């Protein structure tokens, strides 16, 4: 199966100003712009959020377009960071292709790491929702 080349929708520690942005994305992106993932909510995790697909809700983040020469290596790095292995039932996250919305209303297909089904079920039952779907706003002192 051929993996499509898509931008990434990031909503947690990969956002600008967060530690994983500097480690993985700094200097490897062509464009970073605000975006929203409709039909998803964010749950607070142990130092990072989980996006969980839901009928209603919105997750706020950035649409990140990588430099072409950095794409393949970055995709592999982000899969490792998110502990995502295609088809592995023990994944914490699944990498899925979803449509995200820019502030002007235009849309783009993007890779999104969402909570894997077992994790999503636990979060729905016992998790703490991030109010407003923006992980940055729930953190009182985020680094800049």
UniProtKB/TrEMBL annotation:
<dbReference type="Pfam" id="PF06094">
    <property type="entry name" value="GGACT"/>
</dbReference>
<dbReference type="InterPro" id="IPR036568">
    <property type="entry name" value="GGCT-like_sf"/>
</dbReference>
<feature type="domain" description="Gamma-glutamylcyclotransferase AIG2-like">
    <location>
        <begin position="8"/>
        <end position="136"/>
    </location>
</feature>
<dbReference type="InterPro" id="IPR009288">
    <property type="entry name" value="AIG2-like_dom"/>
</dbReference>
<protein>
    <submittedName>
        <fullName>Gamma-glutamylcyclotransferase</fullName>
    </submittedName>
</protein>
<dbReference type="InterPro" id="IPR013024">
    <property type="entry name" value="GGCT-like"/>
</dbReference>
